[in-house]
């Protein structure tokens, strides 16, 4: 059981659950509660908007996302046996779990995840949205088989798919909102605000993941070079890859404060950004540019994961600010 849980990267799956739940209940729901709407069959007084995507379907949405992601992790380990032996000295597929069972689980996860994706898309009234899960399933397979061996292609793909996780919540909530308020409201409310906020989290996730993927490639340099992979550090050299990852972190930090200054501009957020996001990111920049110790590089990678976690938890700050009007 432990080997199986490690194979599907259970901590990462928990992060996906947390991200989707917080996007729905800590960002979208409180934002909707700030939008007044007059219902056709109501008292004529303005009421607050509420979530319209059914809870059961949201649970299926999360489950479908988890299944497709787990399938991606399984096939990644399946194709990475030789490089992982060099980089980490041990593997799960081929030792603790047979290659045949790994492929079996990959197939089960994909079929179930894609099926659930089509079902919730059909229930949402947009059956074609289910093709998104089919496409992601295919991309994760080809990422492991080919794309991750190409310069920057694999890094960008993982970053894009990570950014898709928070966006999925709004992709499925929006049709339900539109359908309900189109039929029941005097005038259709403006939903753009929820796209802006969730989109901000998605951009943050994209850039953080891109930086962390490059750092991980630096850690895996020996195995990737031995097997002819054209990763960023193999092509640009380790120093070049360190500079690229550090530059991305500096860009993230600058963008966060620019957005804060022009869009939010409250004291709670700036304190949160400085202590829990900016300082850890700048520490990683220091480790990348100054320190050459491989152990410190691994610590830097962990700090990136920590920043991703604190970035997600900022949604709780958003909920508090919106709930108690702390702007």
Mean pLDDT: 91
The tally of beta strands, per DSSP, is 2
Cα end-to-end separation:
47 Å
Order of helices and strands: HHEEHHHHHHHHHHH
What attributes characterize this protein structure?
single chain, 2 strands, globular, 13 helices, mainly alpha, 327 residues
Commentary on this structure:
By secondary structure, this protein is mainly alpha-helical. It starts with a helix and ends with a helix. The protein has one domain (2-45, 52-323). The protein has a two-stranded antiparallel sheet. Helix 11 packs antiparallel against helix 12 (267-289). It is globular. It has helices at residues 2-7, 10-32, 55-79, 81-87, 99-124, 131-145, 153-184, 192-219, 221-226, 232-236, 238-264, 267-289, 294-323, and strands spanning 36-37, 47-48. It is 77% helix and 1% strand. The protein contains 13 helices and 2 strands; from the N terminus they run ααββααααααααααα.
